[in-house]
Amino acid sequence: MKNTGKRVDLIANRKPQSQKVLHKLREKLKKQHFIINDTNPDIVISIGGDGMLLSAFHKYENQLDKVRFVGVHTGHLGFYTDYRDFELDQLVANLQLDSGAKVSYPVLNVKVTLENGDVKTFRALNEASIRRSDRTMVADIIINHVPFERFRGDGVTVSTPTGSTAYNKSLGGAVLHPTIEALQLTEIASLNNRVYRTLGSSIIVPKKDKIELLPTRNDYHTLSVDNSTYSFRNIERIDYQIDHHKIHFLATPSHTSFWNRVKDAFIGEVDE
Length: 272
What we know:
Layout (H helix, E strand, L loop, with lengths): L6 E6 L3 H16 L3 E2 L6 E6 L1 H10 L8 E6 L9 E2 L3 H9 L5 E13 L4 E6 L2 E6 L4 E7 L2 E14 L7 H4 L11 E9 L12 E4 L4 E5 L4 E6 L2 E6 L1 E16 L7 H9 L6
């Protein structure tokens, strides 16, 4: 029998259950004549949890227009996973019926410009957070070319709608549906008194607007982009905006609605 023509990559964490699922799913896909391909896949299956999906996203962040993602969870319920580890047959069956349908969510683009002219660009599926390494961070924040505030505090985070339920929520930010193409700026322990003032609440910024952050002091700053951390000295500016590319998830009958994910993660069953 000829192969399906669909190229699939499987990425799993090192936990025994995830590795067991990896081998079992790989064999099921081969048996149904899928092509296992780890360089130029059509579909990427992450096995583990949300952290594994983030890793899969960053592995293929330069191929977002060509790749669709789907997650298999081997632990607790995750925001980026549609299948549990006991639903592999259903996943394979849905892949066989796949017509190319997708669910697309916005991605954050982060551009760091250093004083020496070097430019570093990152993409984030969840968020990017900036802190000063050893003391209070002071930075001017500009929104859509409007000098908005001089921030003093631990740092700030800029999140995507899908990332609004992660670090952003723990900071008191709002939960946004991932089809809303907007960014959310949330302060981390801002310093507010009679002398220093910031807005103090999270800000929803539309797709057309750019957020600019200009540190006022030449020093080391720590930038966290999803599950990776970088250290930079002498940052001139950081620009945040919606990326030109989106992440595409496999649209199958098992794709869980966002509000069900939020309910299951934070509320659970509601007593009648």
